[in-house]
Amino acid sequence: MLREMTGAEMVMQALIDQGVEHMFGYPGGAVLPIYDAMFHQNQVKHILVRHEQGAVHMAEGYARSSGKVGVVLVTSGPGATNAVTGLTDALLDSIPLVCITGQVPTHLIGSDAFQECDTVGITRPCTKHNYLVRDINDLARVMHEAFYVAQNGRPGPVVVDIPKDVQFARGTYVGPENIQHRTYQPRLKGDPEKIRTAVEMLAKAKRPILYTGGGVINSGPEASRLLREFARLSGYPVTSTLMGLGAFPASDKQWLGMLGMHGTYEANMAMHDCDVMVCIGARFDDRITGRVDAFSPNSKKIHIDIDPSSINKNIKVDLPIIGDVKHVLEDILTVWRGMKAEPDRQALASWWGQIDRWRARKSLSFKTSDRIIKPQQAIKALYDQVKDKDVYITTEVGQHQMWAAQHFHFEEPNRWMTSGGLGTMGYGLPAAIGAQVAHPDSLVIDIAGEASIQMCLQEMSTALQFNLPVKIFVLNNEYMGMVRQWQDLLHGGRYSHSYSESLPDFVKLAEAYGGVGIRCSNPADLDGAIHEMISVNRPVLFDCLVDKMENCLPMIPSGKPHNEMILPDNAEALDEAIDEEGKMLV
Amino acid sequence: MPPVNEPAERHTLSMLVDNEPGVLARIVGLFSGRGYNIDSLTVSEVSHASHLSRITVVTTGAPPIIEQIKSQLDRLVPVHRVVDLTVVGKAVERELALIKVRGKGEIRQEALLIADSFRARTVDTTLESFVFEITGKPEKVDQFVSLLEPLGLVEVSRTGVAAIGRGPDGM
User: Fold this and answer.
1) What are the residue ranges spanned by the domains of chain A?
2) Contact list, B64 vs chain A (CB under 8 Å)
3) Which part of the chain is the Thiamine pyrophosphate enzyme TPP-binding domain (chain A) (predicted)?
4) Which of A58, A452, A556, B24 could form a disulfide with A425 if both were Cys (CB 3.0 to 4.6 A apart)?
């Protein structure tokens, strides 16, 4: 399809040809031609945000809940710099985005023009790839390439910076069918020899564990299905990182819960004591490993990852398999069946016996109260009321995020969106809005804290404008809770600037935006108030006043191995847990 | 990083990249952003028709770090191929240097003798100075420069290492 058109029209045409239905953006001088081209079509719907950071997080929530590429459109200068946090977030969590930024006209580049910044320079380390399009004849190709790069291989954000004169220039449009990337051809199929070795190692395992991550979700729903199939076939226990929750159903008896710093005792102990570990689409992040030289000391490690640079980055593995999770799991299942492999039933039974003894420690237990709402109780109450609904959960970052990961349970992939790698406060509300755009009839809840929610709260206005009935469930403990918890741990309880001073009246604030505000402080009223929240078909800000001093447990103190977890029943050990070396870590 | 007990080694990495704006910044930024060393760096277009440049980086690190550098480079979109020439086999490595010395009388004689024994060429001469051009392995250039140090060394300009694998096959 070859057609003459302006650069701005090419951008819109490329979006349409890439199947884009929604984009998130904010106009400004350097993108006005694209906004004008948008005005002349109605295939791509534009969601007007209130801050560019919100646009990127919305695109992330949209992408993660739908499996599509999220699209962002912002102007030059501050538009682009405001997008940087979201782009970095998407890079660390491997979320496919295409972010189009306006740029000053080419003849002004480098002259410190109004709203000029070196967008490709600034975004180079926080994108998977970026482009500055100086020539109208490159524009259509670059647009299609951007979509290709964003979603193939390990997904990530791609920036396309387009000077204003290029948006006005006329050129010939080429469709996506004519574009093939010259060099970027990631490997999808794993090495058959290595897959055979992996199956042999797995079949001989006496204490196996499947350690799964966000790569399973990114690989698509089929990867989750294959993971379930392999788990059923082998009877092996499954744990997951924060990013991978939902790939394996939490109701399954083979599910050990999340692992890592605030993971369950059974998941972490099983990681420590296993003899064969299969890391599937995860990256041995420091929240997972604890002290690296004491990480799972006696296991053979198999690592399945589409990104070769993840191999041996943090932890040395015995058998790396480069490939897409779906393809590799498919091949593992075929080889397993072909070899008529059988797990060592006797060894497995005693391994499960050991795991059950760890489970009996009930590491997620907490004391309930009839006087004050415990944050864990609030999540549980929320979960009980919405678990049978078509629900998507996002979070901000901090204690509430960990409590949500621990006490809200997921049965399906793409239902849980949280800022895992970058840990971006302010992520949850815009991500929820993005998820709601992708799933207008579903229940979308942002589990938040009173500090985090204030970082992108202006997007309430976006939710109202586009009739997106997101629910914001704020666990309000009047502290930046995780900061306060670490000040307890490391700094003698000196709460330097972690108290949420001068909080707004969240109920009035919600009403000021045109939404619904609900406050609850009495455990007896909690169920009724949650019911009220989910019954309203409008944006709701739920101010849930919870215990101010609750700590998030269990916890692997920084600098400690998996088998030195602090459990709720020995929480006082937390005060002494971190040594000088551990204090240096984050 | 995994606990690295192995000693640091010097490796020469060669890569073919798209010759497009920003590609060098991307590579240099990767090294600085991830805390890797660059001992030397050379860049030049090698195929005008296919817009390809070749970048040669000499870096130092323990073997797992070198492996990590290689895979980090390899996943950059405009990087076509990365080869660790040090692992592949003894590569041919050459560097060119221009060296200016200043002096009169005996010192001047001595500098000329040393240049001659290193097969350096004299590319500029005045009554009180020389500019020598030398090509060779980096160690040879190091040695030449250090010998000229007491003989009125003024300044040195080095290209950094260009390298290519031995035998009939290309990278």
Assistant:
1) 3-178, 192-359, 375-545
2) 312, 316
3) 397-544
4) A452
